[in-house]
Amino acid sequence: MTNVVLSTAYFPNIQYFTKLVSNKIVFIEYHEHFLRQSFRTRSCIYGANGQQSLNVPVEKYSNNTKISEIKVAYHPAWQINHWRSIMSAYKNSPYFEHYADGIKQLFQKKYELLIEMNLEILNTLLKILKIGVDIRKTENYETSVDNDWRNGIHPKKQYAKRDDSFKPFRYYQVFAYKHGFIPNLSILDAIFCEGPATINIINKSIKAL
Prior knowledge:
Blueprint: E1 2-6, H1 14-22, E2 23-28, E3 42-47, E4 50-55, H2 78-90, H3 96-104, H4 114-129, E5 134-137, E6 148-149, H5 176-179, H6 187-194, H7 198-204
Parallel strand pairs: 1-2, 1-6, 2-5
Antiparallel strand pairs: 3-4
């Protein structure tokens, strides 16, 4: 067990969670400059038409704005649309009714800062999964750190870091009969489809080196 540095993330994917359970201490980067088109403001779910991205809008910012200063925008009313998309995708999943209320309440609060919203989302997910992990904020920005995954987990494959310790484990998905298995979606996909077995899916996605 080691330490890892991760970016903040909006309803993180399974790869992100493999880092959480594989390390003794998890640092969330609070001092980097905000990067667009990343999982900091994006999550991917499995809808009826295949993979679907949920994107969080943010208020205007300058190029050197810290991630900890980025404010969530509420025009348009994206929270309503995100929850409707999640309901549409997972209302027929085995565990939707069991977890829906706990997830829905996250879309009923107005957060000022992106990073604080993402932290509450993460803590809620960890509680659902009964994962105990020591999460800390970075005190400053360091250009070079050991086990650095701040930019390694990325929605665009050309920017993602090679991860030899991650091999997505197949599990039941609602629309797999239409589009096949889609790996490494938001952890919500596994939670609604597999419920308590999600922690096993995370662990089985960790490839021994």
